[in-house]
Amino acid sequence: MTLLLQLGADVDSRNSNGITAIEILFSDSMFERGHISLRARLLLSWGATSNFDRDERKHRLSIAREWGYHKLADLFESELGGRRCEIVNHSSRPELNGKTCVADEYLPDSNQ
User: Is the whole-model pTM more than 0.85?
Assistant: First the structure.
């Protein structure tokens, strides 16, 4: 999957039913198979989005937690969770400026 994304595959491409890869991963059948965290984190780091409405999103997050994927659910729930971000204006560690990282959590009150 990594290679496909590096070669330009659309992280939000849809199957014939209009469902994205991240939406497929957040299903009972995929949770039952297990080991989805790495794939979901990879997709999120490449900017994957879903078209879940508010109720469906809450339901999918609930399912993730039922299967024990609490950290993944928290990451998916967060505004920038799992997204790649560029570090800018880091005065105490200027060597990090211009580097990219993957955000675990967005803190809206501090805009960080």
Answer: no
Is residue 61 a contact partner of residue 70, using CB atoms and an 8 Å limit?
Answer: no
> What is the chain's percent helix, strand, coil content, to nearest 5?
45, 5, 50
Q: What sections of 1-112 are H helices per DSSP?
A: 2-6, 21-25, 28-33, 37-45, 54-66, 70-77
DSSP 78: S
Q: pLDDT tens for residues 40-82?
A: 888 888 888 877 888 988 898 899 999 999 888 888 887 666 6
Computed from CA positions of residues 83, 43, 78, 33, in that sequence, does the dihedral angle turn out positive or negative?
negative
Q: How far apart are CA 66 and CA 79, in angstroms?
A: 22
